[in-house]
From TrEMBL:
Protein name: Oxidoreductase NAD-binding domain protein
Domain FAD-binding FR-type: 5-105
Organism of this sequence: Atopobium deltae
Cofactor: FAD; [2Fe-2S] cluster
Keyword rRNA-binding: no
Family under the similarity heading: Belongs to the PyrK family.
Binding-site list for [2Fe-2S] cluster: C230, C235, C238, C251
Top-level lineage group: Bacteria
Binding site for FAD: G80, T81
Any Pfam family: NAD_binding_1
GO molecular function: 2 iron, 2 sulfur cluster binding; flavin adenine dinucleotide binding; metal ion binding; oxidoreductase activity
Keywords noted in UniProt: 2Fe-2S, Electron transport, FAD, Flavoprotein, Iron, Iron-sulfur, Metal-binding, Transport
Position of the signal peptide: none
């Protein structure tokens, strides 16, 4: 049970572009910063339009409990994220969080290497995980992919967090390998064994990574994105179909799932 879930105020510290329609916001919210765990997310209320009553679910890429701040990198895709990008330092709002179940790091053996595979806005929770692995002294490699160089971030952050290898892919070849994260991830899995693969990105990418991990007999955790309404388990808008039958709610029972329990 998520005992820290609550409604918290926050203040914008920084809100700046980090790429093409890609924004980094740093918020001050001491209670959140001291309780949020990698793979969990927040549901942010963006002020400015009373007709928009739903919050925006966003993962986080870094947290600093000492200074009470949390960093989120998000893509500007619609009305809510456009208004979020317009928020200025010292502006305030509130959020619900920390939400959901994060990455299971204990599922990997203590000494083994793990592989992180991120695509597009899925880079945010993967960078959050990289920081946690660094704090735990775990060895890991990272594959990061984006459509094009201007939509790529997280490479420096992954290296700074101590990643062994960082492989970059872009669909158009403007940075790193031309192609998809799946090719780079399979190459690494072929070269060496990993205890676990952690992935977040577009659904077809995660489905393919899950298939590849299975082929190499490697555990795989996926962080799923679903449309969300309430964000706290009441409406079932975010249902995820399970192999065992029935559904689980992405907002409270996810967003991280074992790849083998999900119907792709
Ligand atoms: C658990 C979770 C974590 C997320 N973490 C991040 C993150 O770290 N960074 C980031 O950039 N985005 C993240 N998202 C996606 C983000 O919530 C949506 O992009 C955002 O809600 C869009 O709001 P909007 O009002 O700007 O766009 P809207 O006008 O509502 O929609 C614009 C477009 O985005 C699509 N969309 C809207 N909501 C979602 C959603 N929840 N999932 C997928 N597509 C959606 C719509 O179908 C539409 O095509 C996350 C989503 C979930 C569920
Ligand atoms: S968004 Fe309402 S139950 Fe998940």
């Amino acid at each position: 049970m998520n005992t820290h879930l609550g409604l918290y105020d926050f203040e914008v510290v920084k809100n700046e572009p980090v790429g093409d329609a890609l924004q980094r916001i740093v918020i001050a919210s001491p209670e959140l910063a001291s309780t949020i765990a990698p793979g969990q997310f927040v549901n942010i209320a963006v002020p400015g339009d009373a007709r928009h009553i739903t919050r925006i679910p966003l993962s986080y890429s870094a947290s600093d409990a000492k200074n009470g701040i949390v960093e989120i990198v998000y893509a500007i895709v619609g009305e809510g994220t456009r208004r979020l990008a317009a928020m200025k330092p010292q502006q305030t709002s509130d959020l619900v969080g920390p939400s959901g179940n994060g990455w299971q790091i204990s599922a990997a053996r203590d000494t083994g290497r793990v592989l992180l595979v991120a695509g597009g806005v899925g880079i945010t929770p993967i960078v959050g995980l990289a920081h946690e692995l660094q704090a735990r002294g775990r060895a890991f490699d990272v594959v990061i992919g984006a459509q094009t160089k201007a939509r790529l971030w997280g490479v420096t952050q992954s290296r700074d967090a101590g990643a062994g290898r960082v492989m970059i892919t872009t669909d158009d070849g403007s940075c790193g390998m031309r192609g998809f994260t799946t090719t780079a991830a399979e190459e690494l899995l072929k070269q060496q064994g990993y205890d676990c693969v952690y992935t977040c990105g577009p659904a077809p990418m995660m489905a393919a990574i899950a298939r590849i991990a299975k082929r190499y007999h490697t555990d795989c955790q996926v962080s799923l994105e679903r449309m969300m309404a309430c964000g706290f388990g009441a409406c079932h808008v975010c249902n995820v179909a399970m192999i065992a039958g029935g559904y689980k709610r992405c907002c409270t029972e996810g967003p991280v799932f074992d790849a083998e329990e999900v119907v792709w």
